[in-house]
Fold Tyrosine--tRNA ligase.
Amino acid sequence: MNKIDQILNRSVKQILPNKEGLEKLMDSKKIRVYLGVDPTGPKLHLGHSIPLKKLQEFADLGHEAILLFGTGTVLAGDPSQRNEARKKIAGTEIDENIKTWKSQAEKIINFDKVKIKYNGDWLLKLNYADIINIASNISSTQLYKREMFQERTKRGQTVWTHETLYPLFQGYDSVAMDVDLEIGGTDQTFNMLIGRELQKKMNKREKFVLITPLISGTDGKPMSKSSGNCIWLDDSASEMFGKIMSMADIQIEEYWQMLTDLPISKLKGLKPLDAKKMLAYEIVELYKGETSAKKTQKEFEAVYQKGAKPRDIDVNVQENVSLTEAISAFMPSKSQAKRLIGQGAVEIDGQIVKDGSVKTQKGQVLKIGKKTYAKVGK
């Protein structure tokens, strides 16, 4: 029960309908739990790691854990937290994204313990009668009352019919796999509760929902690929370490609790700089290994605390492009890159450059802001 209590508390925002019922169920049998992900892009970020880690925790306790790739739902496009409909995605792109997601998820998920399934295996086989049957269990009013749809309507923006149907298709996954529990971030709460209702009505039994919190990005806003504020799982060790060290002190506890297994008690009494270094080391070690973590921390201390120039730079930018274009990969937008250059916060080989049109040359070392270095060319 101690392990159950731990898994249902750390990095958990809410459990519906209640934590006590799920505790009792887990104590009485091995449950079937799943996490669904739509392969919409080629990269995973640290925010994705939170529900992935939670899924693995259930697998480690011996429960039947499923990582579900949304090869069917991705065709409709999840409208969660979207101001407009997602662009349609091609089948070849879906396949390629799944390959990269699986290789990145292997840093967190042990696929000897976690099954992979694809919801296209059942969603793409639904016929007209099946869809009518599923839809008959959820009112249209319930779907249209979704907050983001109401906001779009107020702004005079379009809400497409396929977007309103998305929760039905995601919800049907719970029925098709007959699960006891679904894991997902707070942005998935509406979809997961539709699944809970469908499970009750179609399979005549309860489904629990475990909601994990969303994490803030490097700018303090919710981490998302559209915001350009992500710490990616495939970032180099120095990129990952540097991004964590550059974030606001107020984010330390959030990252500490949700991204590591470090005890919260260890955080107390640490100065912000020391806490960040310990946090950055822990995360880099998890995704890049102990050797990379030690090397990156040593390099960080030499460069940023003692003023030395980095010897090994594993962050590369393109050659023969404008300085603005070269550093825009580190910025949320090109306009911010231009502002940074104009403020004299970008150097080429130790010299401040305020002209963003200057072309980069192979072998040059760029310093972007106070903490980011990059080398031009491979």
User: Anything to note?
Assistant: The CA atoms of residues 173 and 263 lie 35 Å apart. The longest strand covers residues 32-37. The chain has a mean pLDDT of 88. The radius of gyration is 23 Å.
